[in-house]
Amino acid sequence: MSSVVSKDQIETNGDLQITNEFSREYEGVAGREIEGKLVLCANTDTRFSVQFTEQPLLPDPNKKSQDENKPLDYKLIAQSDCKACHNIERKTIGPAYIDIAKKYTNNEQNIALLTAKIKNGGSGVWGPQVMSAHPQTPEEDIVEMVNYIMDLDAEEEARIQAEKKNSPENLDYVYAQTDLEEADLLPGVIAKIYLYDFDLNCLRILSRSLSRFMLKSFPAFMLRATT
Question: pTM for the whole thing?
């Protein structure tokens, strides 16, 4: 058996006779190679289970041809130990790459910040889990890997930047006052705003004093005049 986590992770009700065992490491992942034979049970089903390492500890002859056209940043992150704690889209031990990309705007300051975090290790931003330091990894390689992560939400960031660019300039934003009563606003207009993450065809009438608007891809504004 190849790519076994450890001998202790093998469970069977048969007679497992191990004849040879040695360590193997490949692309930063360590495990065990175990040779032997399994004598099956005579009068019942034989159960056998084993826990393998996250990736095979033997070279894949087809992998090079599959990855040779990938960019450098992809190759570096694929060959690193990052995948032991991170996934592109799902949180495992550490945050998903896509969540990191969404948290940090893609700029030189954040690239330098994340490069230092990977180089020196640390914890606290995403929980108590500790990320190990990578002092032996060249900084230029870490920068390439950070660029790969930051580019995962490039389309979303481009959309946000386009919205900012097309927004009216020199807008004055005023924070809402929290100590006002409704009577203090009379006469005037009271606006109730409802934000939705999906397109709206119509809004039901919430009260007789509210009007219904046909909206699509826009915050819902409920207005009523007051006197």
Answer: 0.45
